[in-house]
Specification:
- It contains twelve helices and ten strands.
- The chain has helices at about 1-15, 20-50, 55-65, 70-80, 90-125, 130-155, 160-180, 180-195, 235-240, 265-280, 315-335, 360-370; strands spanning about 205, 210-215, 220-225, 230-235, 245, 250-260, 285-295, 300-310, 345-350, 355.
- Strand 1 (about 205) and strand 2 (about 210-215) form a beta hairpin.
- The longest helix has about 40 residues, at about 90-125.
- It is elongated.
Length: about 375
């Protein structure tokens, strides 16, 4: 009670001796507060007049809207407090309230900026998964930012926060180890959403499977294989594999292996690459190369490579069929013969005499016998 009376008497004495400075400080503080309020209102009005949701201007408007009037007031008081020469206790109280208010306001601003950018990303990709996950994302971001704000406030109050930070770190490690599978899939889901290696409706190949993405969830991704099965794979396992995305192929490369018989003349062999190139260009595709590749077991092998500028797999298959039929027609008309595996078997008697695969005539036998008699 004695301390309270002492501070009360000191405050009364300060008011009596500095009433003019106090009045000027209050007037200046009110002017600063109204100027800050007008600035906030003008900025908010300008931000809200911008077209479109989740634009940078829209996010700025959300941040300004979250600016509390109490924070503007305490900022104004802090700016003019030194002019009135208040007692140390009053100045400490003002400084304490100012620190708490500003730190909490900065945490609110940071939360709105982060959430606004995340929602903007979700709106750009029309991502249902991210929209559904906003609740848990908001909770995680709020807990993290306000925990940091609390530590900053305690540190400014002179509290030793080293032990608190260490305790939070150990607690975070324990929680992370206990739920590492859940958090691993959650962060993998966010990685898929933000990095966008694939989207819903796109066809991908991972490991040995080719499938279409049907849904990207918080823990797993559902895929529909080309055979019709529903594949469910965790996001972590999916990202750990090499993924080929077929959705944004502006061209697809097709190759044909063509084998002609060994009886083909050298002139026709030299003319074959030009004939293959001509058929590709007539079909309207980009010719890459055609060349002789080697001597096969039963054929002379050539290779044809060309590009089809289509994204749709059905159109690519139709183009491959068209070029294949064109090649068959052109080669057949030019007199080329396609090779196919053949074998010739030769049989010999025990004495090494060749046995022909057809019966020998009696005349041949007689001649053979006569030639065998000694003269």
């Amino acid at each position: 009670m004695d301390d309270l009376r002492y501070w009360w008497d000191a405050s009364i004495a300060w008011i009596n001796s500095h009433w003019l400075q106090i009045g000027i400080a209050i007037g200046a503080g009110l002017i600063i507060y109204f100027l800050l309020s007008m600035l906030r209102g003008f900025a908010l009005k300008h931000a809200q007049s911008a077209e479109g949701d989740f634009t940078i201007t829209h996010i700025a408007g959300r941040v300004i809207h979250k600016t509390k009037s109490f924070v503007l007031a305490i900022v104004a008081i802090r700016l003019v407090a030194g002019y009135a020469n208040p007692p140390a206790l009053i100045l400490q109280i003002i400084q304490f309230v100012f620190t708490i208010s500003v730190v909490m306001q900065v945490a609110i601003w940071a939360r709105e900026i982060v959430l606004g950018l995340i929602q903007r990303r979700a709106a750009e990709g029309h991502n249902e998964t991210l929209a559904n996950a906003m609740g848990i994302i908001r909770l995680l971001i709020s807990v993290a930012l306000f925990a940091i704000a609390g530590i900053v406030i305690l540190d400014n109050m002179g509290v030793n926060v080293t032990g608190l930070i260490a305790g939070l770190g150990i607690g975070g490690i324990a929680i992370g180890l206990a739920a590492q599978g859940i958090f691993s899939d959650l962060f993998a889901s966010l990685s898929i959403i933000f990095d966008r290696p694939f989207r819903v409706g796109e066809t991908i190949k991972y490991d040995t499977s080719t499938a279409t993405v049907e849904r990207i969830g918080l823990k797993s991704t559902r895929l529909r294989s080309v055979n019709g099965e529903l594949l469910v794979i965790s996001n972590t396992n999916l990202l750990s594999k090499e993924i080929s995305n077929y959705a944004h192929l502006f061209r697809r490369r097709i190759s044909f292996a063509i084998g002609v018989i060994y009886q083909t003349t050298p002139e026709r062999l030299r003319a074959l690459p030009a004939l293959l190139e001509e058929q590709v260009k007539l079909a309207g595709h980009d010719f890459i190369r055609s060349s002789f590749t080697g001597f096969g077991p039963s054929s002379l092998d050539f290779e044809l490579v060309f590009d089809v500028h289509q994204e749709d797999l059905g159109l690519v298959a139709a183009a491959r069929t068209d070029v294949g039929i064109r090649l068959f027609e052109a080669l057949t008309a030019a007199g080329y013969e396609f090779a196919y595996p053949t074998q010739t078997t030769f049989t010999a008697a025990p004495d090494g005499t060749m046995i022909m695969p057809w019966p020998e005539s009696p005349k041949g036998k007689t001649a053979a016998s006569g030639g065998a008699r000694p003269g």
